[in-house]
Every structure is written in C-alpha cells, then in structure tokens.
Fold this sequence. Notes:
This protein is mainly β. The chain has helices at residues 114-123, 151-156, 160-166; strands spanning 9-11, 18-26, 41-49, 53-67, 74-88, 100-103, 110-112. It has one domain (9-166). Helices cover 13% and strands 34% of the residues. A hairpin with a 6-residue loop joins strand 4 (53-67) and strand 5 (74-88). The N and C termini lie far apart (55 Å). Zinc ion (ZN) is lined by residues 68, 70-71, 73, 130-131, 141.
Amino acid sequence: MNAKRKHIPVRLSGLADGHHELSYSVSPADIDLPGEFGTSVSVNVDLDKSHSQSALHITIDTEAEYLCDRCLDPVRLAVQSDFMVIYTHESSEKRPDDTEIRQIDVNDPIIDLAEDVRDAALLCIPMRRICGEDAAGNPLCKSPVPDEHNAEKAVRTDPRWDSLKSLKLDQ
Ligand SMILES: [Zn+2]
C-alpha cells in the first residue's frame, strides 16, 4: 500500500461537531487485501464528533472466494465486521472497554482507515469455508465430495479424539 496515498480518508478537522455518516467503496487491491477478495469493500462510518474527540463505528462488508473444504468448488463467503476507533486530542483518557484510542496528529488531521479495514477483513474470514448446509447439517455442495479432501470428516475420524471421548469430564 502506498503510505502517502490515503485510501479511506476521513478529514476530522473538516467535520462539524455532531453525528456524521460516511460511506466508501474501495477496491480490495488498493488496501492490500489478498486475491481471494474479489469484490469491492463497502465501508460505512458512523462518526460522532465532539470538541475533544471523534468516535468512529466502522462497518465493513465484502466477499472473499475460497475453495469449499468439502467439495473444492469455489465458494463466495461474506466477510462482514464492525469495530470502534476513537481519535482524541487528549492523551491520557481511560476507557472501560477495549475500544482503541488514538491521538489526532495536529499536523495531519486526515486519518486513513485503510489499514484498520484491511486488518478487520483479514480477521473475520470465516474459518469454515463450505458451500453451506441445510437445517439438518447436510452439505449443500453440488459437486461430489472426495474423501481425501473432506477436511471436516478427517477431523471427526481422527483417532486422537477417541481418547478424549473416553474421558469422563464430570469427574
Ligand atoms: Zn462444497
């Protein structure tokens, strides 16, 4: 990513105090997301600005394409996440929750959310990459599932689980 170019810029100094809603659509390549991300990333920012700080609630929505763990067909998975970031002029403010607090750089009051959005997207790629399943848990794969590629089945029949199953956990 070109550090000088801001891909998701928010000009904090240019906003009046109060509530703002901003939306962006960025190309995954522009924010260094891997090739699996094939659709543009939509970013919505709910921003509350006061004289001392700006609280941003950022929601991202995109898709990534992986091979299904079961049938190896390409499957598009929704990648959605949201997180909070607070930019403040004060240095030692304590927060009860784990919301990230950053200081506003007075020399560069245009923040860039590109890195935050990329990190959030990478963190919320689903662990289970499957075509989906019906209410009973049956796979919705259209292609046959080769045994050697059925990662989920391999986990279930792993003999190491047998010794765990024989443990009596209520003792
Ligand atoms: Zn499948």
